[in-house]
Amino acid sequence: MEKIFNALIKNTPLAVVVIGLALVLTGASGGVEKLSLKVQEPIWRIVLAAIGGVVAGLGALLLLHPKRELDDPVRASEYKLKITHPLEGTTVETKMQVDGTFERRPEEGSVMLIEQSTRSGQYWFKRQPVFDDASNRWFADWNITGSTNREVFIYVALLGKAGRALAEYYFRVGEATQQWPGIITLPPDIVMCDHVRVMRK
Predict the structure, then answer these.
(1) What number of CA atoms fall less than 13 Å from residue 21's CA on the CB side?
(2) Which residue from 59, 166, 61 is spatially nearest to 112, judged by alpha carbons?
(3) Is the dihedral of CA 77, 135, 113, 117 positive or negative?
(4) Residue 149 burial (CB < 10 Å; 0-12/13-18/19+)?
(5) What is the pLDDT at residue 19?
(6) Rounded to the nearest 10 degrees, what angle do helices 12-29 and 2-10 cross at?
(7) pLDDT (0 to 100) of residue 70
(8) Are 126 and 140 in contact (CB under 8 A)?
């Protein structure tokens, strides 16, 4: 078992495939009996299996095509995407506007704002920002997930092909089911360019 864990740690795409398949099996079977984990609601079983299928597919894609499109930190740094509002450590409203700056405009559709729970570590895709070339600023409306007094990270991120595919499918499933489950693992071609930690009122 230890050798298997070590292999997964060293091979991120393989670990993504395994996690995806585990989600598919959990959704299909309705839970994991040994872990006393039960998923009884049919809609959640469908969502879990669907997300697992996408994650497994992305992992397989990364295994077959190990070269990444834009996850090179040096290349990502050329755009100099920064968050200027809200400020680090501030308490914010549920709905707000996130602002930032950039030096070079990234490719259309390659930037996404992502939320991460500081407690669970799960991620939620949010919005693509609007860029203003005249002022070299970007902005996006934001609605924090979950309950009050919830601490989260807000990221501005660059997405490669696998990241874009996951984000597109995430929104399709969410719009169809009105369920927005957190994502446990993100593809390695998603590069976090800047982040702030905030607390929801």
Answers:
(1) 8
(2) 166
(3) positive
(4) exposed
(5) 74
(6) 120
(7) 45
(8) yes
Return the minimum-mean-pLDDT range out of 2-16, 52-66, 77-91: 2-16
Show the tokens assigned to 48. Answer: 């879990």
Q: What is the pLDDT of residue 68?
A: 46
- Of 192, 167, 171, the C-alpha closest to 83 is 192
- pLDDT range class, residue 82, cuts 50, 70, 90: very high
Residue pair 140/128 in contact (Cβ under 8 Å)? The answer is: yes
C-beta neighbour count of 125 within 10 angstroms: 23
Q: Which amino acid is at 129?
A: P
Q: How many other CB atoms are found less than 10 A from the CB of residue 178?
A: 8
Kindly report, residue by residue over 173-199, the tens digit of the pLDDT: 889 888 888 999 998 889 999 999 999
- β-pairing, 111-117 vs 123-125, is antiparallel
Residue 138's SS3 state is strand
